[in-house]
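#structure-requests
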Amino acid sequence: MAGLKKRSVNLAGHATSLALEPEFWAVLERAATRDGASLAALIQRIDNARGERPLASACRVFALAEAAAGAT
């Protein structure tokens, strides 16, 4: 797996930096495109539902669930 790729997203009016592996970014981008949403909008949805989990972890879990759903 390649190193982390950092991106900035605007969540609820605040700039937030998020570092994920490129493979996770690719899954998130595909999910956003499929839903007709921006990547920032998808990450906002993940952020709203993550509870106590760190945002990067929540994004990875979301991406893993997306990949698993696509494999079935």
